Amino acid sequence: MNIEPRIAAFHDEMTRWRRDIHAHPELGFEEERTSAIVAEKLREFGCEVATGLARTGVVGTIRVGNSPDSIGLRADMDCLPMQETNTFEHASKYKGKMHGCGHDGHTTMLLGAAKYLAETRNFQGTVHLIFQPAEEGGGGGRVMVEEGLFQKFPCDTVFAMHNRPSLPVGQFSIRPGPMLAGGTRFDIAIKGKGGHGARPESSIDPVVVAAHIVGAAQTIVSRNTSPHDPVVLSITQIHAGDAYNVIPETAVLRGTLRCYSNEVREAVTTALSRVAREVAAAFGAEAVPNIRRGYPPLVNDAKEAAFMADVAVSLVGEENVQRNGPRVMGSEDFSYMLEAVPGAFILSGQGGGHSGSGHMGSGGGCELHNPGYDFNDDLLPLGATLFARLVEAKLAARPA
Ligand SMILES: [Zn+2]
Ligand SMILES: [Zn+2]
């Protein structure tokens, strides 16, 4: 692995930062301590620092020369509302909060890159180091974009990475175009007519209506969408009734939709609303769908994904970079930044290694969001080097 020697030299220091953040996890928009540490370190390295974007967001800026070229690098800082079961020294000190997704590692890798870039300044142009709050459901990335992130800190391109336990350290996966799914949540409120369980003829049974809607909704994916467009439509809740002998008045269905384009999302949610309303009407009941858009699909710019893959290849070799890696059904709010500015998102392997020695942990290969997960510190210098090389390649000093 072609790790930058100056970065390798402070691997131990990065490990200490990472474990300190891991031990003090903070939920979305509450990252006061983490964001203060990030701002303090960035200032110490010699970056210009802006705080308070999206409440706890931080942007560090390094400018070299007069080139108008600019690049953004983004890391996320928030933890998850879950109890950690690891027993090592840097396990979470806070009950019910845990860095179960490795954002402690993402933040540390970007800090490592900042330290190196501010010291060496081996590029021409401006780099913005974006530390965002609330990736895990709060949409901190969206809030930063809405608060004018790219007006205040214009970026020609923007890049991010996420650790991937199922790949070993030293391997990367990326793909052009849609890479992570967009998420959508829905509720369908069904109103029938309640009555005695022994006298169905004088009621409109919302339980039967709900069952028909669930069945009919399965045909949306199988009959209304192309087999070339992966879609998941899952109805995950049915709520109705409290008694053996009462036909309830109402029922509620809830669920989630995942897909890779806004067009497919529109088509599926339109079909779902239609199916719910019309099926209910067929039984003399009424259905009111409430569909709420979550994170949009994460779509890599083809050119920038190829650029990011090239930089990864320069570190670990062609055989260790999947340029057409598999799509992922999970979601990421970096997608909002990619809707605003072209760029790319890469998955970096974090399997193997020695960390994650807790209860159910299995080294860096422990699944994300598992109570035994830990970020693998072996990845820190490689990830920081990737961030640094993206800047040096994109803002390469050009001969006059
Ligand atoms: Zn996560
Ligand atoms: Zn995550």
CATH topology of the largest domain: Aminopeptidase
Uncertain spans, ≥5 residues at pLDDT below 50? 355-362
**SSE order in H/E notation?**
HHHEEEHEHHEEEEEHEEEHEEHEHEH
Shape: elongated
Average pLDDT level? 95
Work out the count of structural domains: 2
Bound molecules: zinc ion
GO molecular function: hydrolase activity; metal ion binding
Organism: Stella humosa
Keywords: Hydrolase, Manganese, Metal-binding
Family: Belongs to the peptidase M20 family.
Explain this structure:
There is one protein chain. The chain has 400 residues and is α/β, with parallel strands linked by helices. It has two domains: 5-179 and 297-394, Zn peptidases (Aminopeptidase), CATH 3.40.630.10; 182-293, Alpha-Beta Plaits (2-Layer Sandwich). It has eleven helices and 16 strands. An eight-stranded mixed beta sheet has the order 1-2-4-3-5-16-6-15, sandwiched between helices. A four-stranded antiparallel beta sheet has the order 10-12-8-13, covered by helices on one side. Strands 7-14 form a two-stranded antiparallel ribbon. Strand 1 and strand 2 (57-64) form a beta hairpin. The two termini are 33 Å apart. Residues 101, 103, 135, 162 line the site of one zinc ion (ZN).
